[in-house]
Every structure is written in structure tokens, then in C-alpha cells.
Amino acid sequence: MHFISYSVLGLTLPLACIATLYERADQLPASTSYDFIIVGAGAGGTVLANRLSDNPGTTVLLLEAGPSNLGVTDAIIPMLPQGLAVTTYDWNYTTTPQSGFAGRSIEYPRGRLLGGSTSTNTMAYTRASSEEWDRYAKLTGDSGWSWKNMQKYMLMNEKFVPSADGHNRTNQYNPALHSTTGMVSISLPGYPHPFDSRIIETTKELSKDWPFNLDMNSGSMLGIGWPQQSIDAFARSSGATAYLAPQYLARKNLHVLTNAHVTRLIQTGTDSGKPAFRSVEYTTADVPTGGTSTGPRITVSAKKEVILAAGAIGTAQILKLSGIGPQKELSALGIKTILNNPSVGANLTDHPLLSNIFYVNSNDTFDTFTMNGTLIAEDIAVWNATHQGPLVDSPLAHLGWARVPSNPYGADTTAGPTTPHYEILFSNGFLSSTTPLPSSGHFMTIVTAITSPAARGSVTLKSTNPFDQPNIDPNMLGTDYDMYLMESAVTAILKIAAANAWKGYIIKPFEDLAAATTPAKLKAYIQAKSATIFHPACTAAMSPKGASWGVTDPDGVVKNISGLRIIDASILPVIPSAHPQAVIYFLGERGAALVKQQYGIN
């Protein structure tokens, strides 16, 4: 979503000041060999790089296709993340035409810099429900993925910190559930919104449908509560700022190479009859999407493992370019199939999103500065000088999670009765990627997002060119069930907007929503204005050892392959009913522990 279009890109720091952060392959020490090579510096990859290198006897190379995050202002100031879309810091993906979106293709941003999408997202931090994790344990046959057994990894990741304004946080979260000694800084909002009290009043007036939830990271998510965000009081806390902080980059056994686009993995032999993949081919040539590279291909090998952490899109593409995937698809492109696995690139799942906008009777919305470049420049100056003001928070205010009261379409897609079908997100202004920002006015947006969709899509190769985008088909709103969930969610937020708590504040729905007065018009509105919340997952799903489906075993090791593991959103067998950032961090924490256990690393 293009929350804030104003961009202040361009403030950069020299990489030479960081001992093990390199931007050219020829800067890497020539004599170094690596135990582990990690592909992708997002939520999973940064955790792995940090945890595996905390033993000085273990050597790690982390490859990131994009540049450094250092000094990129839009990746620092919480209110400005979407200024990075359609830039060099974005993979600039586009989906195939989506039938559920009336045939529209949509932009599909993914972070392309250190931190990956943790450097570009809206910083929502949700653990998912306890039922979700228990379902992962059941689906994979590994009790280590259960809610109870994942608690220690959640606490290892999280460092709860005071909000920017230092306000009293009593009754806004449950501190007993949280850690203050982990890695990623988490905080509550640090700048008040004019409707905060109205949202709390809504939880009293509509308590049956929308009870107040003190802490949605308790394992029970239903209701409305204060958002927890990966913000270190006033600045973004990402995989890069937390797990690749200067004290970790100073480790002599950790090398991080930016601008390293991995083109494929290379088979290095066989182990007990299994193909072994311990070599990575990459280039540091700056190649535009769809272009070709005449630059040299560089090969680097791992003594123990290559670990893919390139995300649900990148991991599937790299596997297929390397000969691991559906034989029919690979053969059609002339790629030699080394391992025929139809599950690679299948099962792509994402959360459809719709921005429902209302005119409001308030001058205190962020529309004031999004419509005025001079004012936002002044707010940036305040942020720089005082670390206060409206830019210390993401564009999101309170979050809410709910279930539909009945399901006319058969089996429930959620993990259980305390897991939501959909989410609502309040925002103090005009928030949309499908409707142009008006030149004037003041608005509030209540976003609706389907968090337990039934539709499944795919990632397939367009060509053998590693710089070509793959065909990305998330199949958004691709089932009648998913459309029903979105219709139910919109109906629910209209009920919220009509509550007494909002009298005198909400004036009326914005144009497109106001016109959705019949079931047919509501469906047309949803198809015309929906987008994605950018949570692709599940394209290399975990399954039990010995299962005939799936791509990895429960420990992330690629089935029927030696020396190759995956730790990122692609291995989730089902998309979580949550913002997946925290979930992927937790995958990284446990994934690193499993690697250490396998190789006897203390």
C-alpha cells in the first residue's frame, strides 16, 4: 500500500566503516571459506546470520541482492516506509491478472535491501494465535513448532521498549507476556490519534463482536487492541538494525555481501544417493528487471550448508532455476530437472486487503502533511531534532481481529475458534494503493484484510533468465469463500462506523464505499479496490519427514537433497492469521537452533 508517497531517499553512509559489510565481491577476503552460506537478508536470513556466527569458530556468508539499509531515511522513519516502493530498494514485482480483482494486476513490493521486507513494511508485530502454532506442529509432525515450545524463541526475538512519548502503558498490553532482553525492539504507539478513545469506546458499545483485547500476542487474538510495532521508540527496528547491528558485523567470522543477486544453486555431488547443493552462483552486476547480465558469475561454496532465506517469491524462483521443482515446468524451459518436486512454487498464499475510507470531522489527520510537502518536511525536521511527533509511528493505529459468525462454504480455514478469519486496521488518514489521494479533505481508513483465505496460487518461471520476474499468481479473492469473508468484514466495519462512539466524528463513507449499497455493488467495489497486504508465503511448505507432499522436512532441510535448507516464509504450510514478520523471525530463531544442534555448534 502506498501509505505516504513523500520520499526522502538518498542519505547514505559509507560501507567502509563496517568491517564485515561488503558491497563488491572483490572486497571479500580471498582466503575465506564458509561453513554456511545464507541467501537473503530478510527476517529469516538476518537471524540465521547472527545466531550461527555467535560461535567464532563458525564462518558465515550472508548474500543480499539489494544494497545496504544504512542511512536510507525511508527505512528509518516509521511513517515513511512506502516511499521505498518502486525504487532500487524494491524487487518491483507485479502479479498476473487476478480474477478476484476483476482482472487487475497489482504491484507486489518486496524489500530488496538489508533487512528485506522488515526494512520496508509497516512494522506490525503479531505472534499469531496459539492454535496457529499448534496446527504447524500437527501438520509437520514436529511438536517443536507448538505454541508452548516456541515461547523461548519468541522471547529471544523480542525487546519491549518504551514508546516515543514515554506515556503510561498500563492497560495497553500485558508486560508479563513479553521480553525486554531480545533483539528486535517492540513498542506501543508513541503519538496519540484523535480517535483513540472512540476505538476503546467501540469495544464497550460493541463488546459482543469487538471486545477489548489487552494483548493480541497472548495467543488469543480476537477483539480490538493497541498495536505492537517493531519500532525502537522513534525509529524502525528491523532484521538489519537488530541482528546486523555494528557489534555483530564486527565479528570476523561473519561476512555480509550486498548487491549479490543469486542466479542459481549448483549441484556439488551426491551424498548417500541424494543430490548435494552446497554451491551458490551469484553476480554483483546491476541488472534491471528483465535485463540480462554480461558480468561474471561468481561461485562460492559452503562446507556444511546453503540456507535459502530469499522469501516466498525468491526462494521458489531460485529452486526452479537450479533444477529443483516440477519437471513439466522445468523441461518446458529447457532446465535439467535434478529433483522433480511439484510442490515447489505451489500453494502461494497471501492476505487480500481493502481500504475502506471515511470523511471525518477533524483537522488532526495525517492527510494534513501527505497533501503538503512543506509540512511533511517540517515534521521530518521535528523528528530529526526531537525524535517526537507524528512520524514516530507507522500509519497504523489499533488492530482488530474477528471471525465470521457462520460459514456457508464448508470447512473452516482457520486453526481454531480463537483464530481470526479477518483483520481490521484503523488509520488516521487516507490510506489506499488503489484510489488516488484527493487534493484536500480529512479522512479515516478502516482496512479489512482476509487472514485465513482459502485461495491458493503459484510462483512459476517466466524464463530461464534469473533477472526476469517470475509469474506471481497469489489468486487473490479467488474463491467464493474469500469473497464472502471480505464482504462480511466490510459489513462489520460499516457497523462500527455507525456506532454511537463515532457520532460527530465520521461524516460519511468515501465515494466508492458510499456507492456500495447493494450486494452486487459491494462485490464490484471489493473487486475494483482490493489489493494485498504483501504477505506472500507457503511456496516451499514444510511437511512431515517421509511425506509425499511438501518441499522441506520440519527442520527446513529440503527433501531428498543434501546440504540445502530453507528458513523463510515459504516453508509455512499454511499462512498465519497474523502479520508474518514476527512469525518469520521465530522461524529463524528455531531454525538456527536446529542447525546448531545438527552440527554440534555451541
TrEMBL record:
The active site is at 535 (proton donor), 579 (proton acceptor). Keywords: FAD, Flavoprotein, Glycoprotein, Oxidoreductase, Signal. Residues 1-19 form the signal peptide. SUPFAM superfamilies: FAD-linked reductases, C-terminal domain, FAD/NAD(P)-binding domain. The keyword Manganese does not apply. Its cofactor is FAD. FAD binds at residues 262, 580-581. Residues 34-352 form the Glucose-methanol-choline oxidoreductase N-terminal domain. GO terms for molecular function: flavin adenine dinucleotide binding; oxidoreductase activity, acting on CH-OH group of donors. It comes from the Eukaryota. The keyword Signal applies. Residues 453-588 form the Glucose-methanol-choline oxidoreductase C-terminal domain. Belongs to the GMC oxidoreductase family. This is GMC oxidoreductase.
